[in-house]
Amino acid sequence: MIKKFILKTAYFILPAVFLFGISFIGLIRTESPDVLRMGMIPNIYKHYRDRFDLSEKENFERLSKTKKRDFDFLTMGDSFSEQKGYGYNHFLAEEYNTLHVDEFISNNQLQTLISLINGGFFDDYKVKYVVLQNVEREFIDNSKRISFKTKISQSQLDSLIVNHHEKLEKDEKDSEFFSRSTLQFPLYYMPKFFICKDYLSNDLIYNYSLNSKKLFSNKSDKLLFYKYDIISLTESNKLLNVVSLNTILNKISHKLQEKNIRLIVLPSPDKYDMYYDYIANKTNLMKPLFFEHFRPLKKEYLYIDSKEILKRHLNDEPDIYFYDDTHWSPIASKILVKEIKKVIQNR
Asked: CB-based contacts of 181: which residues, under 8 Å, 6+ apart?
């Protein structure tokens, strides 16, 4: 009886074990690389990241931990400013005293910077430059409904920091043996990756063919990017929105200059925008215009035209952005820090 039971159940269990094994080997569940995780894209380049030094050790100080009050630079932004030991602020801190405002404090970095200015933050913390970084797809959204009256006091900051507990996203269902991804990945998403062209994977990540295999060190001719890079174009391609954003930045710059602080604006191009010219088939794909609209506007702050700067290196330096992620790589971080140094030295 036991033998028959084992044989019968084996017909069901063994295929499940096989599928789970494929998912375990080829499916990314960690936070990074994010496009592989979000798109259920197979991790076929196991050693791709070996060429990078992705250190966790940070040279900069975090507002949530520091006791110091005197800095050359203050940086604030989104996940592009949270790359730890391989981000632009890490390399900036190799030469300059750098303070970083943790992302959990600066949900909307534009509004948060205004609140810090109004709340007397820069009376307690002495800085020479503020680097305001914002990813392209969220810059316009962050500039809407901005108030120049909000403020956050030091005591409110302290309370926010004390009460902050890092929330680790745990998808318990995906960690179970009989999870939906165990079936979906090997039976649907993995075959689709090898068979299909120019499609949306897991309703989150686009997979488009490139006309070059020189853009990434793994020689892949696939561009994997977040779907909101395209969705956000509805707003970021509007000239009036870009003009309004620039007006807000000029106003913030004036407020900082009253405290003898210079504002440096560092937009981070969406991966789609960065590699748009190299997409093989652009039929039905909207051209990104944010940087083209933004570039000629009168700026009363220091501006790092990251798209133009990084674009110069695309053909001679692979992996300006990670193949498997939405973010730029340490290569880009170092290039941009050189530009920041050049901008402040030319003042």
From this structure: 23, 27, 40, 174
